[in-house]
Amino acid sequence: MHPNPPLVAHPTLLSTTAPTPPLTPTALGFYLRTRPHGFVAHVSASPQNLCAVRRLTRAELLARGIEEDAVDSAQLVLSELVGNSVRAYGDYVPLVVEVYVTAYGVAVNVHDPDPGALPRRRVTPLDSAEAEDGRGLGMVDLLAPGWHVRRSTIGKQVRCHVPTEPGWN
């Protein structure tokens, strides 16, 4: 028996009229639990689970009164960080994704199992017409300035804060 059984959705989502249906605990490789002002998802990285985490991020943040632009930015940052982990370790890498609201913005943290492989910023300009990749962390720099990496009990954690409008309580 799990000490914290999987949840269908955060309690604030159950009372909101968000257009996104709540997640179900039947998704393979997807374990969801609440945390203050957000959620933690333990996922096996797959396209389906990334879509589910993106939908949950949107619904959770909108239910908490976060403006649409910041929600879009948080989803993009999340997608980039998960994508980097998948590119580094392959499909179905076990990840822990945290999304929650703080006084400083929306925290988006992604844990992966390798403490040694650190994300590297490339010198590819964001407006390069020839580049086929290498711009993702540049976008993260713009959307979540000051992101950083630290070792965690899981491996490593990339920590980001997407700024929001002042006045969120």
From TrEMBL:
Residue ranges crossing the lipid bilayer per the database entry: none
Matching InterPro entries: Anti-sigma-factor_SerPK, HATPase_C_sf, HATPase_dom
Domain named Histidine kinase/HSP90-like ATPase: residues: 44-159
Gene3D superfamilies: Histidine kinase-like ATPase, C-terminal domain
Origin: domain of life: Bacteria
A Pfam short name: HATPase_c_2
Swiss-Prot/TrEMBL keywords: Kinase, Serine/threonine-protein kinase, Transferase
PANTHER family in the record: ANTI-SIGMA-F FACTOR RSBW, ANTI-SIGMA-F FACTOR RSBW-RELATED
Name recorded for this polypeptide: Histidine kinase/HSP90-like ATPase domain-containing protein
Organism: Streptomyces longisporus
